[in-house]
Amino acid sequence: ETVEGLARRSGDRRFAFDSYRRFVQMYADVVLGLDIAPFERLLERAKRRRGVKLDYELPAQELEVLVASYKARVFDELDREFPEDPEGQLWGAIGA
Q: Which pLDDT value is given to residue 1?
């Protein structure tokens, strides 16, 4: 999985999962046509749960959970999984 490779290469799991969280949210918005408000609410809930105010204060573990929540949101809205294949993601982005 790309996010795991980024975490290993960068030595920063938090950075990797925050980048992936942002990617999933933007892809869901731009390519899949989903409203980003539910994703923002999930992010705000995660920050409240951890007692932090800023996105960068969320630890890697919480970001992993948040990514899973984002993907679940995509499934709930579209009745299909978030695309994991990079080539498929690229073609989706090109078509957007």
A: 77
